[in-house]
Amino acid sequence: MYMIMKGAKTQMIVFDHVTKHYKTNIGLDDVSVEIKKGDFVFLVGPSGAGKSTFIKLILKEIEATEGSILVRGEDITKFSNRRVPELRRNIGMVFQDFRLLPRKTVFENVAFAMETVHKKSKVIKKQVPQLLSLVGIESKAQKYPDELSAGEQQRVAIARAIANNPKILIADEPTGNLDPETAWEIMMLLEEINRRGTTVVMVTHAKDIVDRMGKRVITIEKGKIISDSIGAYKLEQAFAGHENMSDTLQHYRTDTIVL
Amino acid sequence: MIRRFGYTLKQAFLQVFRNKAMSLASVFAITAMLLILGLFFMIVVNINTAASMIEQDYDSIEIFLLDETTEDQADDLMKDIKDEPGVESVTYRTKDEALIELKSRWGDSGYLLDSLQENPLPNSIVIRIDNLEAADDVAAKAQTLEGIEDVKYYKETVDKLMKATNFIQLSAVIIMAFLIIVSVVVVSNTIKLTVFNRSSEITIMKYVGATNWFIRGPFLVEGIIIGILSAGVSLGVCSLVYSKVVDLIGKDLFAIMSTPMVPMDFMVVNMAWIFGALGVSIGACGSIISMRKFLDA
Question: What is the C-alpha separation between B226 and B203, in angstroms, rounded?
């Protein structure tokens, strides 16, 4: 199991013996894990294993039954509901089904996230085109979501997710509805965002992508983390790399970045 | 702050406009309820005024004298009565004064009295009571005096009237409470529909870190706008109706009941406050109730 280094400033998300019970089943069972600032983490595992529980706990959509969850050094299990919006402003979300607002243009969809946190319209008008060009769809600003391809829609969703400069980007199967080539483009975009300093947590079933990216992979099954290692979806490999993981973490990362 | 308010206001007006049909339905529902409420209000206020007017008569007893009773005899009677406990003042009213007063009460129809060949009204003594409990005793005493034709004394009538007014007031309050609950439900359902339409938007808003009040704001203002619109429409209709009623029966009512109707401007100002307060709170409550489920999750 991954060791927790308390007090380190580089910790972005820390789960400390977190358990989440639902009425009839277990979501997470005594999970401890640490995600550092600037990490790119894949969260894999079969359906119902606890991946969604993990994400929802970070967003404080649900409450942990036991244990504490630190996001940017603060224990969010002790947060009052009043502080939830503040928490979520530091976390961008990308979904499998994009979740764009159909009656708003691409520009408005991204601007919407900024309006929510009361940015000045002058700032919004300046920043939205920058964001759109970062994700490579600056020419589609005035189009509506249904006029875009799936890949383009996901780019809009990513632009919206990072609009308020979140420290963490959570992507819930962002490539699930995309063909392999488009999926890979989206991965490159996420990697670019990660390279700019945003911690990325991505839930996925796409084994090929996980293998190809060579990032840290946390495997959850039946509410427990059964492996936490660098580079591959495969469980055997995960266990093999477990022993000396902390030493090789940096090594792996610099090795595997593909641009 | 101003920017936030501007955003909220803009969104609220957009919502009202985009959901024209439902907004209109809500406005109709609240207006209907305010109209009924206004009707009750107008009736109750007038009944109250009439009741308090009559209550003023309650503390007076009028003794009608026989025609053959002279003014000297009347003076003696007055002295007797004045010594009774609870009597505040005693005044003598001649039959001519009584006729003039009656004429002025009848107003435009007063000319009818001109055709009388002789004054049929008796001379009378008007007794003012300062202690209402003493009224019965004074009235009983007056009955025994000589040279009197009749004692006019309203107690029973007034008691009945008071009971009736209290009953009307109570039922009005109950019916109003019912109507208010119904309109809150109607408005909250209307807004629930707009909230349903925008639930995906709300989910996304929550994911990007919108506060509950940021999400609620536009819906709250939407409810308030609907409330104010309804209040305006109801006030207009009620004022129109009331002014017509005053024109039509105000004077006749004064002749019959000897109480004037409550003046138009008093009515309008008070109804404006009541409708405004009710409209706004119904709208606001409706929207907050309808949002509750969506924001808790």
Answer: 25
Q: What's the CA gap between B88 and B85, in Å, rounded?
A: 9
Over residues A86-145, the pLDDT tens digits come to: 899 889 999 999 989 887 899 999 998 898 888 888 999 999 999 999 999 999 999 999
User: Across the interface, do A116 and B208 touch by the CB < 8 Å criterion?
Assistant: yes
Contact call for A115 and B7, based on CB within 8 A = yes
Residue to mutate among A76, A116, A168, with most B CBs inside 10 A, is A116
| Rounded-to-integer distance, Cα A229 and Cα A256, Å | 14
Q: What is the DSSP letter of A146?
A: G
pTM: 0.63
Cross-chain Cβ contact B210/A120 below 8 Å: no
pLDDT at A257 over 50: no
CA atoms within 13 A of residue A155's CA, in its CB half-sphere:
27
What is the separation of C-alpha A129 from the centre of its chain, rounded to a whole number of angstroms? 23
Please tell me the distance from the alpha carbon of residue B159 to that of residue B168, in angstroms, as a whole number.
Answer: 14
All residues of chain B having their beta carbon less than 8 Å from the beta carbon of residue A116 are 205, 208-210, 214
Structure tokens at B48: 């109250």
CB distance B207–A93 less than 8 Å? yes
CA A51 to the chain's CA centroid: 11
Q: What are the counts of helices (DSSP H) followed by strands (DSSP E) for chain A?
A: 9, 10
- Supply the ipTM of this predicted assembly: 0.70
Which residues of A fall below an 8 Å CB-CB distance to B? 59, 85-93, 99, 101, 112-113, 115-118, 120, 160, 163-164
pLDDT tens digits, residue range B140-172? 777 777 777 877 776 666 777 778 878 888 888
Q: Is B128 left (phi over 0), alpha (psi -120 to 50) or beta?
A: beta
Say how far apart CA B238 and CA B264 lie, in whole Å: 11
